Amino acid sequence: MIKIKNFVDENDDITIIDEKGPFKIIEYDKNLLDVTSEKQFINNLLNMINIKPRQLIIDLNKTSGINLKYGIIQQIKSSNKITSMIKSHLDIKKSFLELKSTNNSSVKAEYQNDQFIVSKQTYNHLILLNLSDWNNKLMMGDKFFFASEKSAMLSIRTRINHSQELLSSDSSIYNILLSGNGIVCIESKIPFKDLITIELKNDSIMIDASNVIAWTDTIKLSVEKLGKEVVGPLVSDEKYINVFKGSGKILIMP
Length: 254
What we know:
By secondary structure, this protein is mostly beta strands. The protein has one domain: Mitochondrial biogenesis AIM24 (Double-stranded beta-helix, 4-Layer Sandwich). It is built from 3 helices and 17 strands. Strands 9, 11, 12, 14, 15, 16 and 17 form a 7-stranded antiparallel β-sheet that branches. A 5-stranded antiparallel β-sheet has the order 1-2-3-7-5, with no helix packed on it. Strands 6-4-10-13-8 form a 5-stranded antiparallel β-sheet, with no helix packed on it. Strand 1 and strand 2 form a beta hairpin. About 15% of the residues have low confidence.
C-alpha cells in the first residue's frame, strides 16, 4: 500500500484546473524554489510573470487503458503493461514505416492496471477534449498529442500531397487520428480559452500549418501551392498552405 501526502487536495499551492474521465490536470500556483539550484533566478522570474507548471494525473481505475506521449511519465503506481510509445517526428516516421510493413502497432505507449500515472511537469497548457464533441474522429498534428484513453483508437496518418518545401518547414508531415470514444489530452502553447474553433459546412478555408492543432476527420486536408491570384497579407512568405474542405470543426491557435 502506498500513501502520498502533500499532493492533490492536501497542498494549497496545487489547483485542479480541469477533470474529465480518468484525467485530472493540476497547476502549481508558483514554481518550486530551490535555493541551491542555479535555476533559482529563472524560477523567480517565472513566478513574477505568472508562468506556472502543470501536470496530468491519470486514474487507471476509471479507464480500460491509456496511450501516452513518449517520455512524459514522472510516477507510476505498481506495475503496468507497456507496449510502445509516441516519440519524436523521426521516430514516428520510423514507426509508421514499421507499422506499414509489419502491420504491428508500434507507435504508442499502453498502460493498464488499477492504479495511477503522474506526468512530468510542463509549462505548456494541457487541454482535455471529448471525442464525442468531434464526431468521434479527431485528427491532430503529432506534436500536440499528450495522452488518450485506449477506447480512442490511435493510428498514424501521413500527408500524401506534401512538397519538399513543406518537409523542410516546422510543420509536421505526420498526423494522429483518434477514433471511437473517450477523452484526449492535447498539449498547447496557448490556453484553451484563447484557442479559436472554426466550423465548416460544405465550405473550404486556407490556414497556415503552424496554427492548426486539430480537426474532425470529416474534413479533408490537402497541402496546396498558392496561385498567383492570391495576393496581399495572406501570402506572406508562404508558398504552400493547408486547405481544409468539407464539414466539421477545426481548432487553431490565434
